[in-house]
Amino acid sequence: MRGIHKRFGATHALRGVNISVEPGEVMALVGENGAGKSTLMKVLSGAHAPDEGSLFLDGSPYTPGNPLHAREQGIAMIYQELSLAPHLSVMENILLGIEPTRRGLILWDEMKSRATAALSTVGLHKLSPETPVNQLSIAHQQLIEIARAVALDCRVLVLDEPTSSLASKDIEKLFALVRSLSEKGISVIYISHFLEEVQALSHRYTVLRDGETVGSGQTAEAGDETIISLMVGRDVNDLYPRSQRNPGSIALQTNQLAGIHKPRSASIQLRKGEVLGIAGLVGAGRTEFLDILFGLEPIASGGVTIGTFSGAALPAQRWQQGVGMVSEDRKTQGLALGLSIADNLTLPKLDELGPGRLVIPSRQVKVCAPWIERIPIKCQSARQSVSDLSGGNQQKVAIARLLHADVDILLLDEPTRGIDVGSKAQIYQLIDSLAQGDPSEGHEAKAVLIVSSYLPELLGICDRIAVMCRGQLSEAKPVEDWDERQLMATAIGQE
Amino acid sequence: MPNALKTNPFKTLQSKAWFNLGARFLALIIVFLFFAIFVEDGKFYTLRNLENIVRQSSVYATAALGMTFVIITAGIDLSVGSIIALAVVVVAWTLNIQIDGPNGELVYLVHQYPFATPLLACVLAIAASSLVGLFNGALIVRLKMVPFIVTLGSMGIIRGLAKGIANERDIYPPEETWIGSLMDPTLTNKAKSWMLLPAGVWILIVCIGIASFILKYTRFGRHVYAVGSNEETARLCGVPVGRTKLIVYALTGFFCALAGFMQFSYIGGVGQPTTGIMYELFVIAAVIIGGASFSGGEGSILGTIIGALIITILYMGGQQMGWPKWVQEMVIGGIIILAVAVDRLRHRKLA
Question: Is A89 helix (H, G, I), strand (E, B) or coil?
Answer without folding.
Answer: strand
